[in-house]
Structures are given as C-alpha cells and as structure tokens.
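Q&A FORM
Asked by: J.P.
Topic: structure of Molybdenum cofactor biosysynthesis protein

PROVIDED:
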Amino acid sequence: MTSPIPILSLQCGKAGPFRGSDEPSAIGKAPVTGPVEVRRLGLVGDEQADLAVHGGPDKAIHHYPFWRDRIGDHPLLDEYGAFGENVATHGLTEDTVCIGDRYRFGTATVEVSQGRQPCWKLDHRFGGLAVSAAMVKARRAGWYYRVLEEGKALAGDDMTLLERPHPQWTIARTFGLLIAGDHRRDRDALETLGELDVLAEPWKARRAKLLGGA
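REPLIED BY: S.T.
REPLY: Here is the structure written out as tokens.
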C-alpha cells in the first residue's frame, strides 16, 4: 500500500463566459480555503457549464497532478486550478493511479472512474498553446473520481489508498487505448478492457465505438 498523499489544494469554479468564445465554461477554477463538502456530484461550490460532457456521478471530481515541464512558464501555472482541476497533488501520476482505485479523501471515499479527455478549451485558456496535444502525447491529462461516500475535505488533508483491484489498468494505459490511438496495435487489450465494470460509462461507450470501427 502506498503512503498517504497530501492534498496541496482544492479548487472550485463557477460557469461563466469563456474569454473570446460564445460557449460558457467553468474551467477557471481557484483554490478555496476551509473544508469543502464532497457530494455525489462533486465539490460543493463547483460547477460545470456543459453537463453533456462534464460532471455527473462518474466525473464528480477532477484530479490533475501538477506539472509544467511540457508547457514552460505561464502565468496560469502560478496557481493551482490552471487545467480546470478540483484537486492538486504531488506524488500521484497517470502511471501509478489505476481505474477502480479507492481513496480516503478527507472524510469522503472516492473511486477512480476514468481519465480526462482534453479538449480545445485548454488550448484556448492557455492563449493558443498546444496543451491538449501535449497531454495526449504524454498520457498526462488527469483523471476523474466518483464519490462513494460523502464527506468533507480540506487542503492539507491526506489522500490514502484503500483498495487497488485493477493494478494492470493504469490511467496512462487506459488513456492510451481509448484516446491516444494505442488500440490500433493492441486490440486484445481493448477487448479485455470490457471486463472492467468500474470504468465510467462515457469510456465504456468510447471503447465500444473503437471496437466497432476497428
């Protein structure tokens, strides 16, 4: 079992106009102080603008391990929340976190449900930098949790791994198959992924679509 990982920051954001775009967005998240209630649909005080592709029980909380090595210096990186994430930590990565991992998160319990699929809004937020492409290439786009047990969390609390039922299905491997094109050379893995009941419904649908087009 891994050592507890400190929560560096928790971020929330409200939906509003997205700079230079006709679409609203809640990608601009800012650190919050004090305890935050963790509910089935996410952190109290956080919003998603487009509920067709964001939010819901399978994507209640977005976690992104803080990094700047592939982007370089940018003012947005001076604060946590630059990528629209709700949770920032050091010590957890897409190579070590697995689908189905369960964590004690403050007093709540959360379960890793899927990786994040980056979109154009990240590039737009960073002034036209190719952030999404860099994420796909590096397999570093973060991941989502579903909330199994509601509670409260606070920056400075620990995240403690409770269970890892699927150690072979890291976020990086799953992301590679479903988003980064690895399914073209590993159809067997794509088929085996169907045995993973804890995989979020959007990624189950993505897998079925890729199998149908293979």
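FOLLOW-UP: The mean pLDDT is 89.
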